[in-house]
Specification:
The structure is a single chain. With 88 residues, this protein is an alpha/beta fold. The protein is built from three helices and three strands. It has a three-stranded parallel sheet with strand order 1-2-3, sandwiched between helices. The model has no long low-confidence stretch (mean pLDDT 92).
């Protein structure tokens, strides 16, 4: 089994200088950390595919054990295009 996490967008509605997935929760961990922690209880991290775009290097550096797909058109597309990138 593989899991796809869509994390390519800027999250502009939050008004943050970083991707939405790197927003800290009250627990101190980021949204993406929480997702990966929960999912990795059931599957190997190499089977977690994260679609990245905005500040992709930052996300990849934080979670090197996951697999990555880059959406080169993340600024002009929505989540369906990111999902399509992961499925191709």
């Amino acid at each position: 089994m593989k899991v796809i996490i869509l994390a390519a967008g800027k999250g502009t509605r939050l008004g943050m200088p970083h991707p939405k997935c790197l927003t800290k929760l009250k627990t101190g961990e980021t949204i993406l950390e929480r997702q990966i922690r929960a999912i990795s209880k059931h599957i190997n991290k190499k089977n977690i595919i994260i679609v990245v775009g905005f500040q992709k290097e930052r996300i990849i550096d934080l979670f090197p054990d996951c697999a990555y797909v880059f959406n080169p058109n993340f600024e002009n597309t929505n989540t369906s295009k990111s999902l399509l990138c992961a499925l191709e």
